[in-house]
Design brief:
- The complex is a heterodimer.
- By secondary structure, chain A is mostly helical.
- Chain A has one domain: MetI-like fold.
- Chain A contains ten helices and no strands.
- Chain A is elongated and about 75 Å long.
- Chain B is an alpha/beta fold.
- A five-stranded parallel sheet of chain B has the order 6-7-8-3-9, with helices on both faces.
- The chains are: A mainly alpha, B alpha/beta.
- Bound molecules: adenosine-5'-triphosphate and magnesium ion (MG).
- Adenosine-5'-triphosphate (ATP) binds next to helix 1 of chain B.
Chain lengths: 274, 200
């Protein structure tokens, strides 16, 4: 009884959060850039019914800017998290199956990447690649794989010892067949959970380095840009410029976090087929 | 034409031997029993003979040459616990056909129902699963079969049914079988000789 309720709750929570996130993404994509026009008549307006998030020093509507920025961040975060997960899955499988030398090299890389703070590494990579969208996405993808790689390596190692995997080898099946048919399907939960747990990291780091001026270019309507610009106006009492976009960022990040946690408890390998 | 263990020793850890100086052999067409107290290393020896473990010392020879490390292994092992020997995320049909495609006659004689092929492993009983593992191990290139407590969990009628099929096949294909079991009456009935692991 309890487990049924838990499952239903899980489904409800994940549906609601997914709908919200998709809505933000789609609305952001649908709003054309023309809507973010400068309108000098309505500068610096505090939140009101016609401008729920207020307007900025150029009279642009903050709600529209925030939606646009969030959808951009979700896009960047998804691409980056997906790439990171791919890297982690490939390296994890390689470390576990290709022998001691490969394992040693990959473990060393993991330790190396884990010993440097994400943000520093991210700034370095993004800087080397010349910043901008490309720099940020590649930087994010290259910095977020190590801990998931460890999890996947351990999982694959355990799987390699499973009797049915060993039997598969005695039945003449290749390493490649085993990786694709036996190993990968078992990693789908890790894959999904990893994706959803990496996403909030990616999105926050993207906002952070953009905020620091080393990420996306100021012409792009990114949430980090909005926040860093708003900081300059904060002292003049325009609190709404940073508050609402900041809250939205937190909300989206929290939503993904929740989705990741929910998925993790949902994907129970022993019940996958019931 | 035989499977030989020559002066085999094995330990899961260094300097802790489970057994040493084991000599034994099974010829093609021969049915040999392997007995010994629990924990004596019968399963371990079976894994070594079928290439699942490498012996710490000594060597295994098949028809005079070392066991192959690639391709279909001519010595197949059927495990004691079928639940662990099948991928829980595969349907029974895929599991059955992983090594070869057993014909309908064999499936019928083993008592495998058509309807089971569409199920997941957790939807079958241990005894039903074991029939799939037996069928899977009986590929055309199997020269020797190691049956580790293969029918322990089955009732005596099913047990007899399955052994009948396996013995027929062994005779037809001139296959050798090593039967690991604690059941004296089974061993006495089907084996031409019985080896005690603690005396070799
Ligand atoms: N993977 C392993 N790692 C370490 N020790 C092991 C492992 N597998 C088995 N052993 C040990 O090796 C010894 C022999 O085990 P084995 O399974 O071969 O015994 P057995 O003769 O088949 O016993 P039984 O009749 O109960 O099946 C046991 O003492 C067991 O604890
Ligand atoms: Mg045993």
């Amino acid at each position: 009884m309890i487990s049924i309720n838990k499952r239903q709750k899980t489904v409800v929570i994940s549906t609601i959060t997914t709908v919200i996130l998709l809505a933000i993404l789609v609305i952001g994509l649908l709003i054309s850039n023309d809507r973010i026009v400068t309108n000098l008549d309505s500068r610096n307006l505090p939140p009101s019914l016609s401008h729920p998030f207020g307007t900025d020093w150029l009279g642009r509507d903050m709600l529209i800017r925030t939606l646009k920025g969030m959808s951009m961040s979700i896009g960047v975060g998804l691409i980056a998290a997906a790439s990171s997960v791919m890297i982690a899955v490939s390296l994890g499988i390689m470390a576990a199956t290709l022998g001691r030398v490969v394992d040693g090299i990959i473990s060393w890389l993991v330790d190396l990447f884990l010993s440097v703070p994400h943000l520093v590494m991210l700034i370095l990579i993004s800087f080397v690649l010349g910043g901008g969208m490309k720099g940020v996405v590649i930087g994010l993808a290259l910095t977020h794989w190590p801990s998931l790689t460890r999890v996947i390596r351990a999982e694959v190692m355990q799987l390699q010892c499973a009797e049915y995997v060993q039997t598969s080898r005695r039945l003449g099946k290749s390493q490649w067949f085993i990786a694709v048919k036996h190993t990968l399907p078992h990693l789908v939960p890790q894959f999904l959970v990893g994706l959803f747990l990496l996403f909030p990291h990616a999105i926050l780091h993207e906002a952070a380095i953009t905020f620091l001026g080393m990420g996306l270019s100021p012409h792009q309507p990114a949430i980090g840009i909005i926040l860093s610009e708003s900081m300059r106006y904060l002292s003049t009492g325009m609190w709404w410029l940073a508050l609402f976009p900041g809250l939205c960022l937190l909300l989206v990040v929290r939503a993904f976090d929740l989705l990741g946690e929910v998925l993790r408890s949902f994907v129970d390998p022993y019940r996958a087929n019931e | 034409m035989q499977l030989e263990a020559i002066d085999i020793g094995f330990g899961y850890k260094k300097n802790s031997w489970i057994f040493r100086h084991v000599h034994m052999s099974v010829s093609r067409g021969e049915i040999v029993g392997l007995v010994g107290p629990s924990g004596a290393g019968k399963t371990t020896l079976g894994k070594i003979l079928s290439g699942y473990e490498k012996p710490s010392e000594g060597l295994v020879r098949l028809n005079g040459s070392p066991l192959p490390s690639k391709g279909y292994h001519p010595v197949q092992l059927v495990f004691q616990h079928p639940e662990k020997a099948v991928n829980p995320k595969w349907r029974m049909k895929e599991i059955l056909h992983e090594g070869w495609n057993p014909d309908d006659e064999l499936l019928e004689r083993l008592g495998i129902e058509k309807d089971w092929l569409r199920r997941w492993p957790n939807e079958l009983s241990g005894g039903e699963l074991q029939r799939f593992c037996v069928a899977r191990a009986l590929g055309p290139s199997t020269q020797f079969l190691i049956a580790d407590e293969m029918t322990t969990m089955l009732d005596s009628i099913t047990q007899a049914q399955i052994w009948q099929v396996v013995l027929d096949m062994a005779q037809k294909r001139n296959m050798g079988i090593l039967v690991i079991s604690h059941e004296a009456h089974l061993l006495n009935r089907i084996c031409s000789r019985i080896i005690d692991i603690s005396q070799v």
